[in-house]
Known about the structure:
The complex is a heterodimer. Helices cover about 65% and strands about 0% of the residues of chain A. By secondary structure, chain A is mostly helical. Chain A has 2 domains: about 5-165; about 175-395. Chain A has a 3-stranded antiparallel beta sheet, with no helix packed on it. By secondary structure, chain B is an all-alpha fold. Chain B has one domain (about 1-95). Chain B has helices spanning about 1-20, 30-45, 60-70, 80-95. Chain B is globular, with a radius of gyration of 12 Å. Classes of the chains: A mainly alpha, B mainly alpha. The interface between A and B is medium-sized, with 30 and 26 residues.
Amino acid sequence: xxxxxALLAALRERTREVALQQYNAPDPSMLxxxxxxxxxxxxxxxxxxxxxxxxxxxxxxxEAELTEAHDNAPITAMGYTLGVLADTVNSxxxxxxxxxxxxxxxxxxxxxxxxxxxxxxxxxAMHATNTSTPSRDLIRALAEATEAASYVPWxxxxxxxxxxxxxxxxxxxxxxxxxxxxxxxxxxSSRTRTTGYAFxxxxxSIAQLxxxxxxxFTSQDAKSTGRVVEAALTSARQHWRQAADWPTEVRLxxxxxxxxxxxxxxxxxxxxERLSTMDHRSRQESLQSALLRATExxxxxxxxxxxxxxxxxxxxxxQALGPAYLTRHPGTHRTDWVLDPGTSYGPKLIQAVHRxxxxxxxxTHMVDEVQSTNLGDRSRRPSRWETVTASTRxxxxxxxxxxxxxxxxxx
Amino acid sequence: MEAELAQAxxxxxxASHQLLSADDPSGRALVLAAxxxxxxxxxGDLEVEPTYVSAVDTASQSLVIAIRHLIQAAPLVPSSxxxxxxxLLAEADDHGNR
Lengths: 411, 98
């Protein structure tokens, strides 16, 4: 479905078609204006209607009631475009609320500018055909009230509102992370379906998750606690990037379509523009929960990799096995893929994911500690001022992973 | 044509490897690498073994070479791949020169 930005571009195009109409076949009446005014009002109610425009638009609705232009008229197309735009903007009002003054003003200007151009064209047509004075006065008032907006240059919106589109409601990070973890664990625990893609992609997803968490736990917390957590998450991210980075000499084929879809869902949920629609506390809580799921995936990853390497299931390019292999195996080519005869590639991959898991557990433990402290602080002291408590300071000292009592992914 | 596809897969593998082993303070190389892994997975449906290829200078160059091979193998390539390729090229222009 079209995004708000795409619909605004379409509205500009439809407006241009309406403007061109005056040199072609001017519509001498208010045909099509009911839909135009009604759908404009639906958008303006969300982003703010200029007060002087409210009575004018109401009068237009009354005057133009139930009169439609023919289906192919540009003003009809403009009315429909405004209708889809209204449906889209109003489908998730929180996006408009969080969009900020600049983007709300831009959206409002686009709608008012469209109304201005349509009013100007209609007014010209009315002059030419001596249409009744009340209607003419009404459209003239609308053209004048919306004129200022017609000078605002068009630009795409800069907040997530611009990317909002009709369709299924975007699922929350908790739900997306749960589906991703289930899919990853399912394929990694399978003895027959585990693939190189599953290893590399789950590792890169965990790295992305650590990156998003590092940002969320430091962006509004410049205290030393935040910096320690950020350092731990950054370290975990680096280790998981290394775990995702398989040498090109090694591979393990197969399909993981479901995991690909779930990983892409997770990418979208972790995108800064999506995370920015959540308030700070919800974002931290969701990322904490996702990190816990990631530790489960990480453990499955490591177990599966150990199984694959020890089972001799990795494929390796002959070139990496040295010239002696070619001598011992006549008829084999340097570019052939053969089952790994026990090189150091597999153990190095295992070491990398082992280190990544330890770093992730360390970081997740710190996040848990900070969140527990924050929860305790909030329940004890509902003040807007944050205080560094003794338990918070203890986080600095406890860098080593601790037993994770009472932690579960379902929490 | 399958040989072209195998070459394309080989260069895609190099591109993701180069991105994952590079410095990446902004996190964009990681995102791009994940998208390349996804493309490899989609192309994996064609049951073609990747050719092992030597690395070129940058991930961006690997990607461009891979796409040239993909174009040579176009009749075999699912249509759903091309929007991904276009998106990857746009991203690589910004972030793949590493």
